[in-house]
Amino acid sequence: MSHDKTQGTERILIKGAYVMTQDGALGNAVGDILIANGKIKEVGRKLEDDRARVIDGRGNAVLPGFIDTHRHNWQGALRNLGPAWTYKEYRAAIQIGLGQYFEPRDVHIGNLTADTLSIDAGVTTVRDESHISNSPEHTDAAIAAHWESGIRAVFDHGWPSTDAEEWQFGSSRTHPDDIRRVRNDVLADDSARVTLNAMLRGPEMSTPEVAEQDIRLARELGLRISLHVGLGEWGAKQQAIRQLHESGLLAADMTFIHCCTSTDEELRLLAAHGATASVASALEVFMPGLGQPATNRLLAAGVRPSLSVDTETIVSGDMFGVMRAALAYQQLVIAGAAGPMDREPGLPTFDAADLISFATIEGARACGIDDRTGSLTPGKEADLIMIRLDHPNLLPATDVAASIVAGGHAGNVDLVVVAGRILKENGVLKGGEAVFEQAAASRDRLFHAAGMPLPA
């Protein structure tokens, strides 16, 4: 089943922008981009096309859209509830407390709300880690929202948030079999705008036997795999990456999320097998109990990580904050004030240009879609954003990458294009105004159903 009727058919020519291609052969330069049939047709200087609509890119940076490789979209209507929550408090309030009361309509509006904010902030691809598979109807509602919003989505089918405690940390339950239906009947096309991955629990959240069965199921269905690992003291004890290596299951089709307390040896094993990683740096510095961002240790192991938001109940749903948090924590590493796992001398460092790479092309690689997006390479899907460099918070934009990372926010994102279709223009989202009223109604219903008082 494909819903790609929304792919852009308009020819668009962006002129005179500072183009940050994330393509090593093309580099960065002031120039033009021609979009045709939903794809990037040409990148160069003094391009002309009599049939194209011309967009003035002067004073702007054009770059691939940000790729968020790990967000629990279903929580979109519950954003900003607990910025001071610990991991234990988050699980108790959201996954255990409210997750069981979600109806399919709540999942739909949660996903749509998260997608809308993502697009507004320049995220053109989201990897939706969906552990709200309470029923097939819940799953279908989540997927439908991605088609509706226009975002590019990698839907990671997960487990239910009913009986939440029985699905994590030593669980003997195997992955819900409904993933077969989704693969065969709902998201069978791996070239579509919305595609399917498997969000598995691995040996850290289930048992070695269950982990092996789940992984073999995902591979039987031809799906890439994501796993949360290195979660606090439990992750350090379990060493899930090491377990997977020893059982012969560790492979390049896996993305490991967090890795906060994964050992340096585990990270080297991850790199040796060609697997990828997702760092949720803002969440990891905000939420006690997980550990610290592993960005520098991953680089030391030979892994260029991707970046992710995780949950909007704790942190802002934009990649600007995620990039800044990663950089802020690196400064603690350099100062010798970081967590105990980051005190090895000589850890490699990264800069603003690296962070934009982590948030774009490395995100595409983690999702297995770098052949289609993540860089402004001719022939790829036209997923791109334009950022106003003439806004007061970014002027004089001496170093463009540094300006975007240090000072950028969603209000600077002037244009968002996904598959050649314009979703935000002149700083204004196209449609979606009603979604936030629906989000408030969903939030109220969920709190009422759970018997929980709304915060004053």
TrEMBL record:
Top-rank taxon, per record: Bacteria
Domain Amidohydrolase-related: 62-422
Keyword entries, A-Z: Hydrolase
Pfam families: Amidohydro_1
Coiled-coil boundaries: none
GO MF assignments: hydrolase activity, acting on carbon-nitrogen (but not peptide) bonds
Listed name of the protein: Cytosine/adenosine deaminase
Organism placement in taxonomy: Bacteria, Bacillati, Actinomycetota, Actinomycetes, Streptosporangiales
